[in-house]
Amino acid sequence: MKCRKCEQKAAVNLRQHKLALCKAHFLEWVPEQTERAIHKYRMFTPDERILVAVSGGKDSLALWDVLTRLGYQADGLYINLGIGEASAADRSQTDGVVGYSAASLEKIHQFMEARAALKLHVVDVAATYGAGIPEAARMTARGSTKPCSVCGLTKRHIMNRVAREGGYDALATGHNLDDEAAVLMSNTLSWQGGYLARQGPVLPASEDGLVRKVKPFCRMYERDTAAYAILAGIDYIYEECPHAIGATSIEYKEWLNQLERKRRGAKLQFYLNFLRAKKEGLFAGQEARVALSPCTVCGQPSSAPGECAFCRLWRRVREQRQQGVETTA
Length: 329
Ligand code: Q46
Ligand code: ZN
Ligand code: ZN
Hints:
By secondary structure, the chain is an alpha/beta fold. The chain has 13 helices and 10 strands.
């Protein structure tokens, strides 16, 4: 197969677009398409400051690379969750994947070494709040079976806090089309009107203190972000977080890929047709969001009056630890 643009041997076949490209043209195509999405959905402008949430995986590192190539002012944020390293108990729960978080940070540092003048914020959850995510999850009802709920709540809080404190205009995440289509499938199967109304490439900032969230890779297939990372020479962490095993989102992705094998472009059409239907008002009136008020402890916007869910959770973790210390003393 030959590249559509230069007749050289194609390196990537983008079946959903009936487009084959050589390495050089694919490495141009991904930033061009990302730029298009940024403009089309009015994500941000070149004079705005962007905070990119980086995990060390292919999507977030590829996104950081693309945004800086396009000339955007994009700083990184890495949240060290303490996965696979906090304790022997955690290692046993993660199938022996040791040092997952540390290995992720290592990939980010390698990425930054090859690119001058990038700025990274690092928040170490254990050092800042007193326990890593797996340990905190074991101590609370919210995370007693799986740490993902504790993890998600904590990440959302930290991302918003760092973006606000740093005066960033938008928070960018590396969610790709496969991620978005899987969430869409989940929201559709349960007809979550409110979630469907709010799902999209941009979640605008709210007056009550939530920073704008954007997903510049929302139309990019996961296979293509991986190809971009490899061809651009980005070394990333291949393993998924060990706690992702068994997640329903992975199952939905597999179903969508089965569909895609039968119908080329099905995933993309599913998502784009949803965005069109939404624009035409299919979910009008469902957007209503509860008014937020500042948390009395941390000041971040919260749907509950008084102490926010994040502060409540981590207060409980500290109390549990305290009790643990007292009983072992
Ligand atoms: S990082 Fe955290 Fe995910 Fe790992 S513990 Fe679950 S939520 S699976 S995106
Ligand atoms: Zn070419
Ligand atoms: Zn709070």
